[in-house]
Amino acid sequence: MKEIKYRFFFLIIIFQSSNSAQFNDTLAIVGKHIISSEAFLERFELLPSKDKDNRGKQEIVKEQFLASMISEKLLSFGAYSIGFNNGEIFKRKSIELERLFVRDELFKRKVQSQIKINSTELNNGIKKYQKDLVVFVLQFKLKSNLEKFISKSKNSKLNLDSLRNKLDGEIIDTLVIHFGDVDEEIENVVYSSEHDRVTPIVKIDELGDVVFQIIATQQNKKAAQKNINEIRSEVDKILKSRKTIKETDKFLNSLFEKQKGRADRILFDKITDKLFSILIEDSLSHKSKNLIFIIGSDFEEVAKYLSSDLNKPFIYFEKDSLSLVKFLDGIKYQQIVLPYVEITVLKNIFNANIKTFIEYELLYKEGRRNNIQFTKNAQHDVEMWIESDLAKQFAVQLCDSLSNIKTNNCNEILQKYIAELAKQYSVSINYEKLKNVRTTNHNMVTWRNLGFGGRVLAVPSVSPNYQWLEKWKNIQKITQ
Questions:
Q1: What fold characterizes domain 131-219?
Q2: Contacts of residue 43, Cβ cutoff 8 Å, sequence gap at least 6
Q3: Beta carbons within 8 Å of 77's beta carbon, 6+ residues apart
Q4: Which of 58-62, 85-89, 98-102, 266-270 has the lowest mean pLDDT?
Q5: Cα(241)–Cα(11) distance, rounded to whole angstroms?
Q6: Are 48 and 444 in contact (CB under 8 A)?
Q7: 302 or 406, which is more confident?
């Protein structure tokens, strides 16, 4: 007996903290900026950190993490003060981040806000979830015989096995139908026919016309292990996932039927030919779990190779176009996976990814048309990621500028520099309020699934820079 399994995906991960801290508590002040308990928890809870899962060191870990967040802000201040953020790379990075988070916020407003589950839907779902239906999938050589089988099956005195054999029916599979695990149309037909022994005709692409004969009802093993609140939560999740898919398709169809985009064929061939040569030269570093992954640095190599073409239009829309350099900046956020390295396979998969990229760009344009780039959520996400990346890159440049100094001394000088910045920007830390912030000890990498597809880390990583604290305290003592 085989069980049908379909994967349902969730387009958005919503983080909910179990803490009871006041979200407007100020844990630190850095210049004119504050780090609230909300900002602290947003990063701390969703990122791994050394000793985070050690309850005995929880307060030390919290203090070091907060100090690292402060150092990130200070380094970004240092970068801004010398115009480090004005480089072309960071301008393009800002635009790409805006594209990601405008699209995500557009999804929340146009799709997620439409997802409502009423009590009738929930109660019907709970009833279905608690039982599984075992069915035969039947095919008949003649459609007329299939129709006769359905008609005569209503006579409860007739033996269905004998009737099926008489009409040249064939059992092509035996399935267990779980609520939420199969195509919704098939699921609805089967559950609504539970007391009729046989369903109406169902058309399946691979099989043609079939009918399901219900042979048994059994308790769902998952449901037997859960209480009613857990069942309600699971059913609610399934129903919302299904509505999300429907609302997403509805919105995308309405948007894409009005707007189209196409890629330049000559540049397409240049890109894929270069990617192919990169993969041929070093397929091992691109391989994981028997699959080939194209990574961000590959597109940086493509950009160098096509340096004279970077400002040429690559994606054409009805009224404007997108340059090759902007395309290469954006495509690196998509996960491009090949089963093996072969030029035709690469071109086909890359072409599919360009189609997705064009759809993402159209969504971004729609978001900007609705001024979503100015919303609080979109601006918060973009600023957080830019500040994090700016601090990391600035720290790297500081160390690179000290090329004659050993790495360990470089870190020593970096910490001293951060301490000086802390003095300059008048840092203050409220350790008492930090102690009151309740945290979990989940120590794992968390991903954020973006609206309409794609994913990024749930929040940008925080570099562990906290050694500056002692240096800063010593500076404070000297100046007092």
A1: Chitinase A; domain 3 (3.10.50)
A2: 65, 69, 459, 460, 462
A3: 30, 31, 421, 425
A4: 85-89
A5: 8
A6: yes
A7: 302
